[in-house]
Write the C-alpha cells for this entry.
Amino acid sequence: LDFVKKGMRIAIKANLVSYLKPEASATTHPMLLCELIKRLVDKGAIVIVGDSPGGIYNSVYVNRIYNATGMYEVKQVGGNLNDNFEQSTANFPEGKILKTFPYTSYLDNADVIINFCKLKTHGMMGMSSAVKNMFGVIPGTIKPEFHFRYPKYEDFADMLVDLNEYFKPQLSIVDAVVGMEGNGPTSGTPKQVGLLLASNSPYDLDLVCAKIMGLERKDVPTLEAAYQRKLAPATCEEVSCNMDVEKLIVKDYKTLPTRGSLKFADTSKLLGKVMQKALRSVPLVHKNLCIGCGKCAEICPMKTISIENKKAIIHRKNCITCFCCQEFCPKGAIKVKRPLIAKVLNPTKERKENEKNS
C-alpha cells in the first residue's frame, strides 16, 4: 500500500454478486474488507466500497445486497458504502471489443481503484477472480445486454479484459480464504483454500489462482485473451511470486467444464460448428430443485426461458450458454451439464488422474 497518500480517494470494487450471506462464500468477506479499510484509513485515505450486482442498480436493491453480505460493517472502521447510483459513459477507442460503454458513476470520484474479488468457479468463464470481477462496473440491468452482444466466449473475455485495461485497478486482491467450488459463482460449495493473494496485475493474479484451482490458461478465456494481447505470460511459472505456487495447489478443487475444447482450427467450418455444438456445455434445470420463481427467465438475455407448470424450461434453440440463469438461480437448481461426447473426448482432470493411478 505504498501508493496510498493522505487524502487519496480509493474505491474498493468488491464482489457483491447477490444477496448471499458471507458464509456462502460467493462474495468478498466483510472481515477482510474491514482489515484493508483500516490500513487505508490509517494512511489518510477516503475509502468507498461498491459494486453493481445483477439486478436493478438503485438504492433499494443494492442496500439489500449490502445488508445480506455484511457490508455495513465497513462503516464501523471508517469506510463508506456507495450510495451514488448514477451511470457514466466511457469512450475507449483503444479497446478491442469495447469502444464505448456505460459504467457506475461512483468510480469517477476515485483516484485509485482496488479490485477485491472472490475466488470461485464460473459457468461461462471457468473461473471468477480478478479479471471477471471488473464486470461489476457495468450497471446490473445492462449486464444481460452485454451477454447478448458478446455471446462468444472469446469476445466476452476480450470485453472483460477491455474493462480492466480501461479502469486499470492499482491493486487486485483475491479472497481465497474460503473460495467456492462446484456450481459457482453463486450456488457452489464453500471450499477451504486458506489464501489471500494480491498483485498489481489482475492477469498475473488470475494465472496463479487458476493454477491453485488446477486450471490452465486455455481453461480460462480471460487468461487466453490477456495472453494473446501480451498482457499476461503464457504460464503461471513465469509469474514472479513470493511463494512456491506448487505448494498451494488444491488438488481436489471441483471445477466446472472448461472451454478449451471449443476450437477446431483444422476442420471445415461446417464440421467445426457441429463439433462445437456437440461439445458445448449447457445449463440444465434440475426440476426437483426448481421452485418456478422466474428469476432465470427474467435475467436471460435471449429470453429463451419460460416457466411452465411452475418449473423453468430452457428452449435450447436460442440459448447462447452465457450461464446467467445458472449464476443467478436462487436455489442452485440450474447446473452446468457437460455432454457425453465431451466427457469421452476430453476427460476431466479427475478422470485423467484416476486413469493415471490405475
User: Anything to note?
Assistant: The longest strand covers residues 112-122. Residues 260-267, 350-358 have pLDDT under 50 and may be disordered. The longest helix spans residues 153-167. The CA atoms of residues 146 and 156 lie 8 Å apart.
